[in-house]
Design a protein that fits this description.
- By secondary structure, the protein is mainly alpha-helical.
- The protein is about 60% helix and about 10% strand.
- The protein contains 17 helices and 7 strands.
- The strands form 3 sheets. The chain has a 3-stranded antiparallel β-sheet. A two-stranded antiparallel ribbon has the order 2-3.
- A hairpin with a 5-residue loop joins strand 6 and strand 7 (about 275-285).
- The radius of gyration is 33 Å and the shape is elongated.
């Protein structure tokens, strides 16, 4: 029964975790982008499911109180949806070690409410906040996918195995993998050539929207660090260093202060005589055992993700500057995008003819094609662009130009 419940809880993730090879899958972004909408989105979604499912950690809160006619379920519900608290003066490691207090922050509190306390209410909102954060990390990908509109997929789908197209007929490997025929491959390459040439200089919005979504990723991860810090009462920014550094003997661990396992709760009710009765309860916060691990992992992940996303933006800036200036840069970039023994040596000649948007679009075509097929496509594009340049500036081929010059010289020599 428990195993079935666990499977049902995580079945929502089945559409986002794919290990099966799909011939028609097309890359429209880079690995840093995918860390946001795949890795981080799944991490936050799994965390949200964990803290909202009782089958993993049992009751989220369980309060201990004397039998004063208060049902245990009523007490647990009341303390969970109001705020529990710990007493600041009892956050004393020395008193805890001597046995003067049972748990950090747990001990007698002044009746006049003069003792400062720390209220803990965030645990009510943890699953909702984690789910909301997951949506925010998915949002830039959703916007980019809508704007991209499947343009790359329409061009390169079906060409993943085109380098081994030796047969005149299509070869079906299994239900998902097919090797296109030689004719289909040539027609598909021609479609890419035509589509690319026809949209020359029109790919700038495509490229700049991708760059905008990458900037949104960076802004989002920085914003998430700030919002999480506000949500935890200013304790998130220093969470990583406080966990990794050794704790002095006279200090309480930061995790026990931020995510206390035992808290206090005060319940008020009227007695038989109509007077106010106060019931002090000790509550076991089982949920915080999971919360402290989730937010510790998130601190390290957010820091790594922010650094990688920042480096990704630096790389994007370098591609904008160097794509039409450096032959070695283009060779490096396209050899990484489309690795193989064929180095596209004529990339620079091609990229001189168009803007950064065209260059980036060609780069993503390279990422989705086999090296041999892309080499063939690139050479064809270079020829098409050369022909287009000659037609634009009315540049004649060398042999035709020499023949015209010869006739002109003969006419001039025979004229009186």
């Amino acid at each position: 029964m428990a195993a079935t419940t666990v499977v049902a809880a995580f079945s929502v993730l089945k559409d986002h975790v794919k290990f099966k090879v799909n011939q028609n899958s097309v890359a429209i972004d880079n690995i840093v982008f995918r860390l946001h909408y795949r890795a981080t989105f799944l991490l936050l979604l799994v965390a949200s499911i964990l803290v909202s499912s009782r089958q993993f950690i049992g009751e989220h809160i369980s309060c201990v109180t004397e039998d004063k006619g208060i049902p245990a379920r009523v007490m647990n519900t009341y303390c969970f949806f109001t705020t529990t608290f710990t007493v600041v003066k009892h956050l004393n490691a020395t008193a805890l070690r001597r046995g003067e207090i049972p748990h950090p922050g747990i001990g007698p509190v002044a009746k006049d409410a003069s003792d400062p306390v720390i209220h803990h209410a965030y645990y009510q909102w943890v699953p909702f906040i984690l789910f909301f954060q997951a949506l925010l990390f998915y949002l830039p990908h959703y916007l980019w996918r809508k704007e991209e509109g499947g343009r790359l997929s329409m061009l390169v789908s079906g060409l993943h195995f085109a380098s081994i197209s030796l047969s005149e007929t299509e070869i079906k490997v299994n239900d998902d993998l097919k090797v296109p025929s030689r004719k289909d491959r040539d027609e598909k390459i021609q479609q890419i050539r035509t589509g690319f040439i026809n949209r020359l200089h029109l790919n700038r919005p495509w490229a700049y929207y991708l760059t905008l979504c990458e900037i949104l990723n960076f802004i989002n991860v920085i914003l998430q660090i700030y919002l999480t810090d506000r949500f935890l009462g200013g304790a998130f920014l220093n969470l990583g260093p406080s966990v990794t550094q050794p704790v002095p003997k006279d200090e309480i661990k930061s995790l026990d202060i931020i995510f206390p396992k035992m808290t206090k709760c005060t319940f008020y009710k009227y007695g038989k005589s109509g007077s106010m009765e106060t019931h002090d309860a000790l509550c076991v916060m089982a949920l915080n055992i999971v919360n402290e691990k989730i937010y510790t992992a998130l601190w390290f992940w957010f820091v790594v993700l922010a650094v990688l996303t920042g480096l990704g933006l630096v790389w994007r800036l370098l591609t904008m500057i160097l794509h039409a200036r450096s032959t070695s840069f283009n060779r490096l970039v396209f050899s990484m995008a489309c690795p193989g023994k064929y180095n596209p040596w004529n990339v620079l000649k091609v990229t001189h003819e168009y803007y950064f948007g065209d260059w980036l679009f060609l780069y993503y075509i390279a990422k989705n094609l086999d090296n041999y097929v892309f080499k063939e496509l690139l050479q064809s594009l270079a020829e098409d662009l050369e022909n287009k340049r000659q037609a634009r500036y009315k540049i004649l081929p060398l042999d035709v130009e020499q023949e015209l010059l010869k006739k002109q010289w003969e006419n001039n020599s025979t004229s009186p």
